């Protein structure tokens, strides 16, 4: 199957390319001619190794030029790419088990790993029952671009609500979504994209890597650790760059870490799009960032709140209208499926967003005509604007399903549509997303979402949001919540117990767990809620202490 996403490999623009951040603070540059030639040589070596069109090839590589060349080398060989996160902060055994679970489902023809990751990759292959050794990237004779199979990607979900599952992303899915991203972002030929997002996550891979490279745009690419060490380096990119994407915490992190003097002389007025996605959007986080960079030409209209997921390739909606983002605070007592959502307060992003307490959410834009987005009730009936229900997505970006027959409890694929497992509603034409249906409990006929509880607990306890994770715990004949808090202190617990009693009632059993290093996260920073509970139950959550 031909694809415009690979065309540049045969007709590269040698005047443009990728700037890759170096550890010394500088940048390394390779033009598309160099990258295309290296990718075709890598394809030659892969073909020599036995890789054929339609095969799955798993990559465990850090973000560097070898990763870029190998990624496109797999595509040039006609194979399907499956990127696997390198180990971050996971325990080695846990990481190997995670990779082995992916390998068992993906059944790759080849596992590619960098030299320093071959030990982990080899252990995972053994655990998955695969023979052979990991293949270290190398180049051979330059090969012509091969015909491709149906699947461009196996995009494994990050596992925030269960075991990893490989989403089948077809070439048609990927082309449609890249076109949607470019259209909604207002991308123009010659625009520059800057990103620090990891390539093994869909927002970084598709939104800020595949999309600009397919158009042979200039790309400034950092690793996540570069951003964490020096977030001002990312911001300085926008003296030249027009587009980026990041989760909300990144904007708040910049506001905390970057000093105005680090931005002296910077002109950000050419910045077109700062997409926000991957987790619930906190208006306070956006406002503190806006106040930091506004003196240098940044406008709140550059914020583009978005909604998407791997099962829809990536993007579903983005607020691409030239306006300040809209934040609303729904009445929690009206959050019942099929019922109207009462809005207690609303305002556009601005000074009133500072210090916004729990319960505020930001609109994620209006669907494009070629992307169907519906809100449905428990029986699948379409609901009108203002009513709460499940978000269902159709259109050319809706993926056909999970690989090898895998299934999820919340997300389902039916009749060419993705039943997302996310709860949301439309208000003033915009989509508002409350969170995973699986990450909620029903209390007196209404849904209580753990993200909302986490915000309220952080407020009452004085602990930061990043130190709190709540898990909905199923029980026999009763409902339960488990609260994980990264602290050894207990003086905050009585106030939180009382708040939760008022919020969810006395019939919900509460388990409070304290300690250090408790909160396990996915590659995109989401708490692995069910995984944490299962490890606690198995007495395998190190440092955990249950408070009576």
UniProtKB/TrEMBL annotation:
It comes from the Bacteria. Residues 25-403 form the AMP-dependent synthetase/ligase domain. Pfam families: AMP-binding (PF00501). SUPFAM superfamilies: Acetyl-CoA synthetase-like. Belongs to the ATP-dependent AMP-binding enzyme family. This is AMP-binding protein. It comes from Actinomadura monticuli.
